[in-house]
């Protein structure tokens, strides 16, 4: 692994330890796990730490609900997306996901009492209605639908044994990595609603997507060594580049870092330009949070067993593939739009 270009300071909420303790209590109450091994894997996601890095000055109660969803998301991904029972059956996944999404949108009445993921998600949904504004809740539920659609797209590729092109993978990864709902919780955790005219502007939309893509590509690179050990040739930025260009792993990794750093550089430049212009306090905090999300995702992965150890449970002998942190120097100074239609429009923003 190489350090990631991220000239942003690390930050974390001061109450992270207390929140993690309460979140584990919530996990034991909703019972997302079936046995102690699953519980250890879920606790080992360090999800409270994860979101405490995204919103280091957030409202503690709202931030805790956001952390509940992160725990839920990792458990759901393991059980039904990444390698679970529906991971190669997109039609069955969509049937289940449609019910899941509706349960979130109307969390007051039981939808499927024998499904632990539905009941836990409804618990989270009710808490969001108590701590967030109606606009924030709607933004989160819409983002949640985007994520489920992205996962279904990824599962459809897997079911057909199809490796997408770089352009297709990029468009899919903007949703499938869980970035939309994760970042939609930023303004909830911060306790400030961003006005629609600002949040829906092309610049803020573009910055949000850049943060999602950088973090998702970082996850691809962080997890690649483990996936290679497990002979996993599924959809991943490195595997996509290898298939597209008939490259070896080193060539594909080199290009992955270059692509990632080009997006990161543009994000930093565009965010700086936007923060110089008049904006609400809520937008300034949101844009700051996008930077915390990129840096926090890197720092969290340094200690998260999920990207290294067997079954996400820490090994006694230490990590097999120690991750590295950040650098202030990009891999490349290559400028201009990436040749990827789904995101080329970002370079026209100002």
UniProtKB/TrEMBL annotation:
Organism listed in the record: Amycolatopsis coloradensis
Superkingdom assignment: Bacteria
The family this protein is said to belong to: Belongs to the terpene synthase family.
Entry-linked Pfam families: Terpene_syn_C_2
EC identifiers of the protein: 4.2.3.-
InterPro entries the UniProt entry points to: Isoprenoid_synthase_dom_sf (IPR008949), Terpene_cyclase-like_2 (IPR034686)
Signal peptide from the UniProt entry: none
Protein's name according to its UniProt entry: Terpene synthase
GO MF: metal ion binding; terpene synthase activity
Keyword Cell membrane: no
Keywords: Lyase, Magnesium, Metal-binding
Names of the cofactor(s): Mg(2+)
Cited Gene3D superfamilies: Farnesyl Diphosphate Synthase (1.10.600.10)
Root EC class: lyase
